[in-house]
Amino acid sequence: MAAVFNIDKAELVSIFVEALLYGIFVVLFIAAVWILLFRRSTDHVNKPMLVAAILMFIFATTHLITNFTRIIDAFIHDRVTPGPIRSLQNQTTVKNLLKSSVLVAQLITGDALVTYRTYLVWHHNIWVALVPALLVIGTVVTGTGVVHGLATIKPTDPVFLAQLASWITAELVLTFCNNIINTGLITYKIWSVDRRASSRVEGQSMRPVIAIVVESGALAAATSMITLITYLAGSNSQYIVLDNMSPITGIAFTLIIVRVGLGLANSGTTSRYNTGGVSGASAMHGRKGTQSTGSYMIPSRSQNRYPLQPLAVHITTEQQHSDSTVDMDRDSEFQDHKSLNKSWSPA
């Protein structure tokens, strides 16, 4: 397969596709930064998300520039000696090592970020995020092994060399597993919260958020799997997918911020949360009240220019002439909504 699809053709196709995907990522990056800075529900900027977005942009830009200059060198400066194919096959050049290092750093950043989201969604439960965190550490180790291996092989050695294959395979498998596990954990948490709250929240479902999480996770996981398959098959077409993991990782990350930030994950209707205790006004002002049924309105994007208002508010009330307190299940649901909102919200 490698002989049928030469590396020079693969690299030309890869830089063309990477340029297209990078353009898409730039648009999403600008939109994500705008949302994080200006379209938020509080005075606080979500700094982890903003820093991650900027890092993704720096990595993707550096990767594209380095890859482009490599191809220019191969087809212009090295077109006679040693020739484009030999030039591109040389994995030990400074530019190729820089390109590989940037890609590894971006994959680690993406895996760490989705693990951080899982940690937030699960109420800072370190045990839930432990396995994904260990996978991130594994990605750091294997990624370092890949770059070191590329730096120590001979210029004429292929990328499919056995001593490289073990590191590259391990890194791709760990990245794939990290995306699958984190996507599953986040999706399950959102689904369970949505199911428990369905009897009290009318008109607003978190299923669109689930769809966004699954789509972004599937995009990153599919890219890792396709790269792994083409690499194990010994095909030069793996360069096409491998080089485009950089913009795709950035797209998968910023896509969640943009879609949620623009209100595309909202149902567009007003939701009413049944407090089942005292009136909403008494609860909000912290006053005692008599037993009654109240509700708190959750505005949607059709009623507010900021679609990322918190999905729920933690309400604590006291009831006069009553031996019972507010149902702890409702309190848990409020906390779940707050954690989920913090994971996607720019605030």
What does this structure look like?
With 347 residues, this protein is mainly α. It folds into two domains: 7-261, Up-down Bundle (Rhopdopsin 7-helix transmembrane proteins), CATH 1.20.1070; 271-344, no CATH class. Helices cover 66% and strands 3% of the residues. The chain contains eleven helices and three strands. It has helices spanning 7-38, 47-77, 84-89, 94-121, 130-152, 162-197, 207-232, 238-243, 245-261, 280-285, 328-344, and strands at residues 201-202, 271-274, 295-298. The protein has a three-stranded antiparallel sheet, with no helix packed on it. Helix 6 (162-197) packs antiparallel against helix 7. The longest helix is centred in the middle third of the chain and has 36 residues, at 162-197. The protein is globular and about 65 Å long. It starts with 6 loop residues before the first helix and ends with a helix. 41% of the residues are buried.
Topology:
Blueprint: H1 7-38, H2 47-77, H3 84-89, H4 94-121, H5 130-152, H6 162-197, E1 201-202, H7 207-232, H8 238-243, H9 245-261, E2 271-274, H10 280-285, E3 295-298, H11 328-344
Antiparallel strand pairs: 1-2, 2-3
Helix pairs in contact: 1-2, 1-9, 2-4, 2-9, 4-5, 4-6, 4-9, 4-11, 5-6, 6-7, 6-11, 7-9
